[in-house]
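Thought: the user asked what Glutathione reductase looks like in 3D. I have the sequence; next I should run the structure tool and report back without guessing.
Action: structure_tool
Action Input:
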Amino acid sequence: MKKIDTLVIGSGPGGLAAAEKLAANQTVVVCENDLWGGTCPNRGCDPKKMLYSAVELAEQTKRFEENGLKGEVKIDWPTLMEFKESYTSKIPAQMQSSLKNSHIQTVQGTAQFQTNGLIKINDDFYDPKNIIIATGQKTRTLTIPGSEYLHNSSDFLSLKQMPKRIVVLGAGYIALELSNIARTAGANVDIIQHNDQPLKAFPKKLVGDLVRVMEETGINFHFNEEIKSVKRVEESFEVTTNTEVIRADWVLNATGRIPNIEELNLNNVDIETDSHGIVVNENLETSRANVYAIGDCAAKKLPKLTPVAEFEGNYAAERILGLNSAKPIRYPVIPSVVYSTLKLAQVGFDSLNSKIDYKITTTDVTHWYNYNLTKEPVAKIMTVIDPNTDRLAAGAILSSSADDMINQFVLLINQKISPVEVARTIFAYPSRSADLNYLV
Ligand SMILES: Cc1cc2nc3c(=O)[nH]c(=O)nc-3n(C[C@H](O)[C@H](O)[C@H](O)COP(=O)(O)OP(=O)(O)OC[C@H]3O[C@@H](n4cnc5c(N)ncnc54)[C@H](O)[C@@H]3O)c2cc1C
Ligand SMILES: NC(=O)c1ccc[n+]([C@@H]2O[C@H](COP(=O)([O-])OP(=O)(O)OC[C@H]3O[C@@H](n4cnc5c(N)ncnc54)[C@H](O)[C@@H]3O)[C@@H](O)[C@H]2O)c1
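Observation:
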């Protein structure tokens, strides 16, 4: 039996952040049953954004055709995939060796709780003083006839050739991001959503604009459709809903992700779970002493994002080290971005106070100098101002630069910067950040 200070289960952004922080003071083991580094760098944020970068440039170039940028731009999918793989193929080894360099022991295998509280990994038993569970999420399985034909986002990010016709089930983050990549790379795309609320957590007005722009690129949205079955017909597939049959060469299941906790055998030690994941208190402690859950696998009403997992990993490590022993975790505002035909970003909406009558303004900036420059089909900025302080409380942006611009909003909100202070600032010109003066 191996006695150690802390066992971290899962080597994604959450687990890595925790392990690195603990390593200077403790004996730490990180256990991983798949790719070192977890979802984000191997089959999530990073590879997606590498494909997106080419797609974004191609879209931008097409928009500028009538303004003097001539010549056909075409995505060469196999070469683009090679570019992506030039990064992803090195990640697991890099991540594992960086852990080893920090004197963290790495074990390849599945961690499973035993009834006596020990953890079994391969043929070894571990008796850690603390455990951090950071096992992430996985694609939700749809229980419909033909579900065996469905692919997930990892399959998409490894496609050798772009299929001619793709049907995408769901209209959330993954659906809207990967549909845009597929469409720009030449596929015909149909998106099927069971209600009329794509990207439910984002402001409806801006989502409506994004859907319209995606439709203009040729993507077909089918709302309020119940997916009944997927049937193989020779080399292709038929996706049947309550009202239609759509032909596809490839079907992506993007109907959501669920906690990846089955293999842990949590019921052996009565660790409480619900349908959103492992139940934790405001100190990220599970129902069992000295066992923490962080990142995507924890049941919390927060966006499941890489920086959130890292923030929680740091917090759990500090708590184990006794650095924040009494303080509950306090999150700063959390921005989220959908990287689609345009970028849709938001921050602060989940921290609004229902008793305050905020001043909400949506400004159409499509024809403002800095947006006209890139000929965007639409660009809008929504601001939510607290009338008591005149400060920005929340905001949303739809534009090609929303991912960077939203970080300006993050700073304004977190640092409580007033409009007067913004007005006293000299920003570089011309730049989109310089428009802040007119917006807040
Ligand atoms: C397609 C896609 C795109 C995304 N894009 C973005 C983005 O642009 N921005 C963003 O912020 N977030 C994005 N995300 C979300 C982001 O990837 C996750 O929020 C983040 O990876 C969560 O980190 P984590 O450490 O909680 O879990 P993960 O990164 O999922 O890591 C968990 C690890 O635990 C391992 N594991 C599971 N069970 C066991 C076990 N029993 N024993 C041992 N190991 C185990 C898994 O193999 C995995 O490697 C995206 C996700 C997807 C799928
Ligand atoms: N850019 C980013 O930050 C980014 C990108 C990708 C994923 N992620 C993270 O991963 C998580 C999972 O992403 P996701 O897109 O899989 O989930 P999601 O929850 O964002 O979207 C799932 C969509 O499928 C719909 N749906 C559910 N059941 C359905 C059914 N039977 N038929 C048709 N539609 C159905 C839902 O209404 C929803 O619109 C996100 O919540 C996010 O935290 C983040």
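Thought: the tool returned a structure. Summarizing for the user.
Final Answer: Structure for Glutathione reductase predicted. Residues 342-438 form a domain with the Enolase-like; domain 1 fold (CATH 3.30.390.30). The longest helix spans residues 45-63.
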